[in-house]
Amino acid sequence: MVATSPSMNRALLDYIRCPRNGSRLVLANQDGEPVVDGELLSTEGGHRYPVRFGVPILLADPTEEEQFTGVNFAEQWGLFDQVGGLGEEFEEKQTAEYLHPIEMQAFSGQLVFEAGCGYGRNLLMAQKSGAALTIGMDVGEAAFIAKRRGVDALIGDILNPPVDRERFDVVFTFGVLQHVSDPHLGFQKLFQLLKPGGLYSHSVYSLENNWFLVNLFTPAREKIFRHLPVWAKVTLSMMLAVPTWLFFWLFYAPFSFSEGLNGWASKRLFYYDFAMLFVKKLGFKTWVAQLFDHFNAPLVTYFSREQLEGWCDELALLERYYYFRNQNTWNFGGVKPKLGVD
Hints:
It is built from eleven helices and eleven strands. The protein is α/β, with parallel strands linked by helices. Helix 1 runs antiparallel to helix 10, helix 2 packs across helix 3 (121-128) and helix 7 (230-252) packs across helix 10 (284-296). The longest helix is centred in the C-terminal third of the chain and has 23 residues, at 230-252. It is globular. The mean pLDDT is 93.
């Protein structure tokens, strides 16, 4: 999976912590040489954690569900990496879509943490936007690919993030909380990593307009699809992609050429906005990848706006936003209150 072996960025030692007791971590080898494969020691309790391919592996008894998620998504990101990525629109421009209505300039000069970084595409865009430091975390070996692509990555669990509290200016997840076994707890845990006044940003599947996935597809995925080998999920994705792609072009795309018809179709046609995202922007290759993602995902939760508003109320987020993207996804977040500010 990993063609090269970049060394661990020693600056990470100022941010990562023992997932068992929160103590600082030190390198077992302190000779100053680049650390590709090594070991980290906690300063309290003597807990040991390996470094592989320059990536600290900071897991403390993750649940079977989290391990299953890590394995499945590592296979998925590995597959996307093997085919050379999914195109410029997906690899670069989609980060702005996940962040909207917040501008990409929000990353400039900031300390940025992404949970569920996959193979690092969003953090690479944060770097291009001028972030001072970016750190990505994933529960699986996709973090190795992210590291090779130029992201300082670690392997850890969102429900027990091995990172110091109140250190980051921006903390975000894009398409990740929906795959966590306890999304609400994950939302609370990641909030602790954010500095007062920092930006908290997320994108998740909506409960609204996703009745097909919630009621019909999800039960089939949980019982059958997610347990299939990769080749079978790829085959199913291709078999479904071809006829649906033709359907989109023949029956949906014509509506997009008229502003009036486009607005009518957006309100009345099943998954119209989502389909047009791929037809007009992301392309067939990414549509296949999207279908693979739905077959592959071990855990999926769908969220209503009311539920997300409740979460933000609990944290007293300021400058909150809720943006209904593609009629099937919520972008939401806000700013962590500063001390003494209501």
